[in-house]
Amino acid sequence: MRLWVEKYRPQRLDQIAGNATSVKRLQAWVEEFRRGEAEKKALLLHGPPGSGKTSAAYALARELGYDIVETNASDIRTKTNIERVVGTASKMGGLDPGQKGRILLVDEVDGIHGRSDFGGLAAIKNIIRKTREPIVLLANDPWALPADFRGLCEALQFKRLDRRLVLRVLKEISAKEGIAADEKALATIATNANGDLRAAINDLQSLGQGGRIGVEDSASLFMRDSEEGIFKVLSRIFKTESCARAREAVYDLDEDPETILHWLAENLPREYEDPSDLARGFDSLSRADLFLGRIKKRQSWRLLGYASDLMTCGVSLSKRRRYHRFTRYQYPAFFAMLARTRAKRDLTAAVSAKISRRCHVSTKVAAQEFIPLVRALFRDPVRAARLSSYFGFEQREIELFDPDRAKEIYGEAQKITAERITTRGVQTALF
Amino acid sequence: MVEEVWVEKYRPKKIEEIVGQEEVTKRLSTYVEAGNMPNMLFAGPPGIGKTTAALALAMELFGEGWEANFLELNASDERGIDVVRGKIKEFARTKALRGGFKIIFLDEADALTKDAQNAMRRSMERYSSVCRFILSCNYSSKIIEPIQSRCALFRFRQLREDAIRDRLSYISGKEGLTITDDAMELLLLSSEGDLRRAINMLQSSSAIKKEIDAEVVSAATSVVMPGEIRRLIELAMKGEFMESRKLLRELIMGYGVAGEDLIAQIHREVFRLSVPDEMKIHLAGVIGEYEFRIVEGSNEIIQLEAMLAQFALKGGK
Ligand SMILES: Nc1ncnc2c1ncn2[C@@H]1O[C@H](COP(=O)(O)OP(=O)(O)O)[C@@H](O)[C@H]1O
Ligand SMILES: Nc1ncnc2c1ncn2[C@@H]1O[C@H](COP(=O)(O)OP(=O)(O)O)[C@@H](O)[C@H]1O
Ligand SMILES: [Mg+2]
Question: Which CATH number fits domain B161-221: 1.10.8.60, 3.10.20.90, 3.30.559.30, 1.10.357.10?
C-alpha cells in the first residue's frame, strides 16, 4: 500500500504548507548561486522533522528542471563515499550552458557521526569550498554541527508547522481519500503531531484504514505518545496543596479539557482514600463538567477557564490530608468503553435516525424513549418483523434488538414490505 | 400503512381531536378556515401536542399530499445552522403545490444558539413570501426577541392528569387491555405530564401482558433489573467506591442505559432501602442535584461517578 506521506508529498513550492519566507529564500538562493552571486556556497536548511525541508528541496528542483543528487542517513557516509557521490557531482556542470542543473542534497547532516561516517563532515567542508553546484544541507539541530562548519553555510530555518496548518492538510487528505473523519479527531491528531506533518499524515493513514475516524480513535493515539506527560500532570494536581502549582500543571499539556477530566476522574479514587476527600474531589470534577456542558451547548468558550480551575486547583484543594505514597495511574476506562461500544453506538444512531423520522422526535428522544419500547415489542418475533418493516431496519440494525433471530426477522420484514408495496400499487392502479 | 407505534397510531389527525389545548386549537382552526396562517411559535413542555398540532394543521390546510408542502426539521439534530438553512433553501425553491405557501416546522428551536437564531431569522425573512414557519420550543424565553416578535405565540399547557388518564383509557379500550387503578397511577406519576411517554410506557407494558397492573408497569419501565440498581447503591453506601463504579460501568456498557434513565431508577430504588427516612430524603436531594448536572453537563459518567462518591460519603457517616 502506498504511503500517504509519499502520495501527498508536495510537488510544487506553492504546495508546501507554511514557511513561505524560507521557501522563497531557498529559491532565491539557488538562483543567486547560479548567477554566481551567492555569498555562501551551501545552504543549511534546519528545522524539526516533517516540516517540509526535503519536500521543499525536491519541489524546487522540479520547478527549475534540476536533478537532485542526494545522500541521506541511510547511505554510508564516510569520507570516501561522500567524495565519490557529492564530490564528483560538485565538480561537474556549473558553467556549462545547456547542461541540466543540479542541487546536491545532503539530508540529515547532523546525523553524520564521527565514528561510523568517519571524516564525512570534513569531506563535506572541502566540497563546499570548491563546489560549482549549489549544496543544500538539511538538519534538525544545527547546533549539533561544529561552528566552523556552520560558518560555511547560510542558515535558513524551517519552523514547526502550526497545528491549524497541520489540521488543514489533514482535512484535505481525508477529503481526497473519502474518509469520514470527525473534526475533533483530526484536531487531536494535529495537536499530537506537534508540528510534524509527516507524523500527522502517518497517524491519519493508520487510523483511517476503516474509512472513518472517530474521536475515540484519536484519543487512543494521543495517549500512546504522551502518557508520560499526563502522568506528571496528574501527580502534580493530586499531590500539591498549592492552587498556583495545580493550575500551572496543565499549562504545558496541549490536550483538550475533556480528556484531562477523564484522566482525573479515573485516578482520583486511586489517590484520595478518605471518602470526604473523594466526594469533594469528584464534586470539583462534576462542576468542571457542568461548565464543559455549557460550553458545548452554548459555545461559551469564555467558561473554559473556570472548568480548568475546578479540575486543577479545585481537585488539589479537595483533600484534607496528604497522600504520599506512589500511585500507579491508569488509562481512563471511559475511552476503552467508547472504543468497545462504538459499533453499538453507531447502530443506535442509525436506528434512532429512522425512528426519529417516523415518530417526529429528535434522535435523542428516539434513543431514550423509543429504543426501549422497540426492544420490549421485539419480544414477539411476529411483531418484531412488522416493526422492522415499519421502520425500515436493516438486518444489522435488527441485531441490536435480537441478535439471535435477526436474520429470520429481517426476512419476514422484507416480505411484509413487499406486500405493502404491491397492495399500494393495486390501490393506485384502481383509482 | 398500519401504525405499529401507538404514539403515531393515536396521534390526532385533526386539530379538533387534540385534547386539553382548547385555546390553541380554537385559534388554529381559524387559520384552516382562512386558508392562511402567520409564522408561529409553539411553546411548552414535551409530549403535549406541539408537533401534533403542526402536523394536523398542515393536513387540514393542504389535504391529500400535504407532505410535499411540509418540511420538518429538528434543531438539535441538524448539524449546525448552515445545514438547517441549506435544507430550508432547497425546500423553498420549488413552488407550493396547493395553498400558496409551504410550512417549515422547526422543532426544538431553543437548541439553537443566539447566532444561529439570528441566521434563522434572516431565512424567515427571505422566504416569507413562499413559506410559513412554525418554531417549537420548551421555553419561549430562549428564543430571541426578533423572532418572537415575528411569530404568533402559542402557549401549550401542561396536560392535566384527567386528560392523560382519559387518553390512556381510550387507547387501552381500543387495544383490548385492562388496566388497574394503581397501574394507571403509576403511569401518570412516571410520565410526569408527558403524554408521549405515558403512551410509550403503556405500549411497553402491553408487550408483557394484556392485563396491566402496577407490577407490569414497573417491570416495563425499568431499563435495568431493580436488583442491580440496589446493589449499586448499597456498594456505594458501604464505601466500596471502586466496586460500585465498576458495576456502574457494566450497567452502562451492558444495557446501554442513558444516565437520566438510570438515575430515575436509582431514585425509585432509594425509597425501598432499609435506611432511616431522613437518609432517604437526603439521598433524594443528592440524586436530584446530579440529574440536574447530567442535563446541564457534558459527560454523564463523570456525573454519575461523582454521585456515587456522595453516596459513599453519606453511607459512611
Ligand atoms: N510543509 C509541508 N507541506 C506539505 N507537506 C509536508 C510539509 N512538511 C511535511 N510534509 C509531508 O510530510 C512528508 C515528509 O516531509 P519532509 O519534507 O520529508 O519533511 P522533513 O524533510 O522536514 O523532515 C512529506 O512527504 C509530506 O507529505
Ligand atoms: N394534546 C394532545 N392530544 C392528543 N394526543 C396527544 C396530545 N399531546 C400529545 N399527544 C400524544 O403524544 C404524542 C406526542 O405528542 P407531540 O405532539 O409529538 O408532543 P410535543 O409537544 O413534544 O411536540 C402524540 O403522537 C400523541 O399521541
Ligand atoms: Mg415534538
Answer: 1.10.8.60
